[in-house]
Amino acid sequence: METLRIFNENYQQIGEMSREEVHWTGTWHETFHLWILTVEEDKEYIHFQVRSQSKKDFPGLLDITSAGHLLASEKKEDGLREVREEIGLLLELQELDYIGLLNDELLLEDFQDREMCHTYFYRAAAEIWVSYRFNEEVQGMVKIEKKAFRQLWQGEINKIEGTSLSHKGDESDGKSVSLTKRDFVPHSDSYMRRVLNAI
Fold first, then answer.
1. Domain locations in the chain as residue ranges
2. In angstroms, how far is CA 126 from the centroid of its own chain?
3. What is the number of other CB atoms lying within 10 angstroms of the CB of residue 151?
4. From what superkingdom does this record's organism come (predicted)?
C-alpha cells in the first residue's frame, strides 16, 4: 500500500493517508510533474504520454510527459524515479526548470484528486524523441505543437494534429493522429494556464 503525506490548503502537513483514501476523500497530497519540450524547425513541441489501457484512471488518454505521486518517505527530487520508470530517462534535478508548486483538482463523480504538484519542465534535444523507453503504465507518446495545444485548451479550435510514438516501435510510429480536448486528461484550467505560461 502506498502511503502519502496529506496537507491542508496552505501546504501544511496534517498527516498521512493511503493513495486510495486520498482519492476517496479528495484530500490534498503531493505529486511530481515533468513536462518535456523540444524545438524542431523553429516550432515548440510538448510531449504527452499516452496512458496505458490498463490504468484504472483515464486509460488511453494523453497526459503530462511524466508524473507520479510522492510517497510519504520521498522528497520532490525523488519524483525523478517516476521519470526513469515510466519513460526511461535518467535526468538530474538541476537539468530541469522549476515552474512551482501548482494546485490541480480533478473532481469527478467517483474520483476526487486534489494534487499539490511540484511542476518542472525540460527543454530537450529533438533526438530525445527516440530515447523513450516505456513501462507498462505508458503505451506511447505523442508530440504536439505547443501553439496548437494552447489553442485547443482555450477553446479556440476543436481539433489538432500530433505525431505518435508507440510502445513497441510498430507501424504507428511517426504517424499523424487527430485529437480533440476529450483525448486529454481533464486537468484544471488554472493548472494548465500556469504551465502553458511558464513553458
1. 3-198
2. 19
3. 14
4. Bacteria
